[in-house]
Amino acid sequence: MQCCSSVLRPTLCILANWIFFVTSGVSQKSELSCHFGMMSGGLAVCLLPLLVFPQSVVPQEKALWQGEGTTADLQEVILGRCYNYIRVVNPSVGEKNCTAIWNAFRDAFIYRDPCSVTDRDYQTFISLSLHSIPPNKALFWEKNKQLVHSYSDTGRRMMPLGETLIGWLGDDLTWCGNSSGEGLDSVSCPTTAECENNPVESFWRIASSTYANLSSGVIQVMLNGSVSDGTFPENSFFANYELPYLRKDKVSKVQIWIMDDIEGPDVESCGTKSVAVLQQILEQKGFEYTCADNYRSVRTLQCVDSPSHPACLCSSSASTPNLSPHHLVILLFFTFQWTAVD
């Protein structure tokens, strides 16, 4: 800003300039006066009053719930995941209308009370996203998500729910609606403790039951044997929304793998505590099942990250098997037999 100038004589100069500032989001105007005075030697100077520019005040929306708000750029995330899945991750599912899938997903909860969204609200979304689960590749789990997805190898070895299109779209995201603005609550969303019929909980309920209903052949169940609050929790998604929806006419066998953390502890094993409860339920439902503690293939994968752990170390003479005299005699016998035949 430039003040008015004048010749060397006492005078008063008023400069009417408009200063724009924002207070609480509303533009206002303030008139500024510049007073001209005299200093020694007759030098004219401008005496500017002290200007105080109030800081911009942006009202913050109050959090209504205890959970995190809707994931930023949710539409872009969902659409990006959809195209990535059908083009790169699993193109065998064929063409899917990702825009229609997003619209159906959004319409299930946008502008809605976040405590009144039910499983049925996602039915159109489920229908548009549905695809088959290859036989013998269904993998259910509780409390060992990272290990499960490492083992499944993005659907190449197994196909847990999170590696179907439905699960791929919703994994690790948060969303809920409100009745104002853009219809999404970006500040907070209800937790399950606050209300069970929240958008995320209802989504995973119908996703889980749908996944179980589609599973066929030999299915796998990977549970954590090191947790203290139950390897097979009675209020888990597997117990409430997957196990009850397994179809006896489609599932030939259930293989249970109880995997301890590589560092332990060994809290539960096959036939004990909550695992015994699961086995009893399977028997009552007429499912054939097996149960293995620290299934070797998965244990080997755990050892990739902890190769020096005692549970992962082989015998120092691994290249030369340590055979008992009995086994050595049998080996020599068959060696001589093969030699005689040649």
From TrEMBL:
GO terms for molecular function: NAD+ nucleosidase activity, cyclic ADP-ribose generating; phosphorus-oxygen lyase activity; transferase activity. This is ADP-ribosyl cyclase/cyclic ADP-ribose hydrolase. It comes from Anguilla anguilla. Belongs to the ADP-ribosyl cyclase family. One of its GO terms (biological process) is positive regulation of B cell proliferation. Pfam families: Rib_hydrolayse. GO terms for cellular component: plasma membrane. CDD domains: Rib_hydrolase. Its EC number is 3.2.2.6. Keywords: Disulfide bond, Hydrolase, NAD, Transferase.
